[in-house]
């Protein structure tokens, strides 16, 4: 094969992952020449080009060396890995990207109820993910028949082609609309950066590493929150324990209130209302949670 000196990233041409993937790459400083309906987008600053394809084709394109990296759902990547003779080799999940969250779940007709995996014994389950479902069934000691369907899996029970389904769920609205109830989660999924286990040992490998470093910075900033609050000194330990990622806070004295401090801390991950309420009960007040725009240690 002719060698390439530019890095090539595969991503979904149009679908749920397209916009967030484009935004992520833009945040990493990558710019591409606009070509809405083309397969190929030429990168303008860095030597990185894009290939816009169906999400299902992404793992294969990386495995064959047509692309170096890809942005794809973990569900699609894992299913591809399981279809390979040596699932542990070849492709790897290099980073999880925090968007496109969903789960691959088994669902049963609402009126059936669900009281555990054994209930699925001897049943037919429709899915587009035979590899992942097969793995779950084996690990739960269930002997069920897997019916492969490329799409419209959710109507299989009503059509009588299966007793249950195994499909992607996010809000659960599709399940409700089809009178199904979620019974068991097979895997939790989100968009991931996929690549071969060993990056090429040439310029492309160097570009890939540069991109991974930028990506780590972007992910860290996106997932960080700055929290500011005031608290009694004697409540500091309790409050710090409640902060996501248990950061080491910076303390500032409060004029005229020697038993009080202002706490500033960089948290890993978002801070929920529940966590704020817990901190308030522990003695914190005047709490502010701020997004972080850029970070340089
Ligand atoms: P194509 O094959 O044309 O690229 P698609 O129909 O397979 O598109 P989408 O429906 O856009 O793909 O889903 C892409 C990915 O988005 C899924 O593989 C999954 O990882 C993720 N996703 C997040 N939430 C959901 C959901 N509720 N239903 C389906 N996929 C979801
Ligand atoms: Zn697809």
Describe this structure as you would to a colleague.
- The protein is of the alpha/beta class.
- 27% of the residues lie in helices and 31% in strands.
- The radius of gyration is 24 Å and the shape is flat.
- The two termini are 43 Å apart.
- The relative contact order is 0.14.
- Adenosine-5'-triphosphate (ATP) binds at residues 12, 15-17, 54-56, 73, 75-76, 100, 102, 168, 170, 189.
Topology of this structure?
Layout: E1 7-12, H1 18-27, E2 40-41, E3 48-53, H2 58-63, E4 69-73, H3 74-83, E5 91-96, E6 102-109, E7 124-127, H4 130-139, E8 145-148, H5 156-159, E9 164-169, H6 173-177, E10 180-189, E11 191-196, H7 203-222, E12 224-232, H8 236-242, E13 250-253, E14 260-268, H9 273-281, E15 285-291
Parallel strand pairs: 1-3, 1-4, 7-8, 7-9
Antiparallel strand pairs: 2-3, 4-11, 5-11, 6-9, 6-10, 12-14, 12-15, 13-14
Residues 12, 15-17, 54-56, 73, 75-76, 100, 102, 168, 170, 189 line the site of adenosine-5'-triphosphate.
GO molecular function, one term: ATP phosphoribosyltransferase activity
Subcellular location: Cytoplasm
Family: Belongs to the ATP phosphoribosyltransferase family. Long subfamily.
State the gist of this model.
This protein is an alpha/beta fold. Helix content is 27%, strand content 31%.
